[in-house]
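Holo prediction. Input below; ligand is pyridoxal-5'-phosphate.
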Amino acid sequence: MIEINNSPIQSIECFGFDILIKRDDLLHPDFSGNKARKFIYFLEKDLSGIDKIVSFGSNQSNAMYSLSVLCKDKGIKFEYYTNHIPDFLKEYPVGNYKYAVKNGMKIKIFDNLKHAFLKNLSKTVKKGSTLYIPEGGRCETSKYGISMLSKEIIEYKKDNNIKKLKIFLPSGTGTTALFLQQSIRDFNDDAKVYTVACVGGKEYLKEQFYSLCKNESYHPEILDTKKYHFGKLDCELYKFWIKLCQQTSIEFDLLYDPIGFSEMVKNLRSSKPSEDEKILYIHQGGIKGNESMLQRYKRKCDESLTNR
Ligand SMILES: *Cc1c(COP(=O)(O)O)cnc(C)c1O
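Structure of the complex:
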C-alpha cells in the first residue's frame, strides 16, 4: 500500500535568485508529482466494486504511468487509450510507456465510439465496475490532493513568517494551477499563483480555467510568453534544462520545467522580488518521462552543442 507524506521545500540559489522549490517529485518513488496529487483521491478511496480504471491520452503521458501505479497498488485492471503507438516504441519500450506496461497496463488504440465518449468526459464516471477518468486528471476529484499541496505550502509560509509569496508552476491542462489557487483562497491565504501555458497558448489555458471554475478571481495569472508547441524539441530549452539541473543539483522534467522555470526567471528579472517577498517553484515530477525525451534531445541537440 502506497503511503504519501508531505514533500519537502528546499531553498536554492540559482540564476541569481533565491528560489524555494517544492519537491513534489519526492512524494514517493513510484507515485509522485502533480499526477500523484491528482490521483491520491482514488488511492485513499475505497474502490471495492471497481475492477478496472480506463483513461486516455498520449503514449508517454505522466498521468498514464501514475494510473498504472495506482491500479497495481489497488489490484485492479488498467486500460489506456491512445491515438498511436509507434512500432519502435513497441519494440524498444522506454520511459513512462515502458514502466506502465510493466505495471500491467493494457494500451489500446481508440475506436470512434471510445474516442467520442472519452474526449467528452469532464468528470470521473462510473459505469458498472469500471471507472473512467478524464485525460491528465482534468476533473474535480483532483482538487482533493491539490488542496493538500496548498495546505503544505501555507503551513510553510506561516512557519517561516513569509509575508508575500509568489508561486510559479508550468501548466498543461491548468488543472493543478487552478485548483492550487482556488484552494489557497479557500484557506484564506493571499499567496498568488503564476503559470505558463506549455500546451496550446494563453487563450486555451484561460478556457481550461473557465471550464473548471467560472469565478475568475480564483484563476491563476498566466505569464505573457510566446506560444509554445507542446513536446516540440527546442535546443534552447534543452540547454536551459542542463543549466537548471546543474545549478540546482535537482533533476527537472524536460517537457514542462524548462519552459516554466525559464519564464519564471525572465519574469523575476523584469519585476524583482521585494525584500519581504519569497518565490516558490513547484517541481511537479515527471522524471520517468525524461528517459524518452533525453533520447530524442541527445539525437537532435548534443551534436550541435559540441560543434559550437
Ligand atoms: C501533467 C504535468 C504538468 C501539467 O499539469 P496540469 O495540471 O495539466 O496543468 C506539469 N508538469 C508535469 C511534470 C506534469 O506531469
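The domain at 35-138 is CATH 3.40.50.1100 (Rossmann fold). That is the main takeaway for now.
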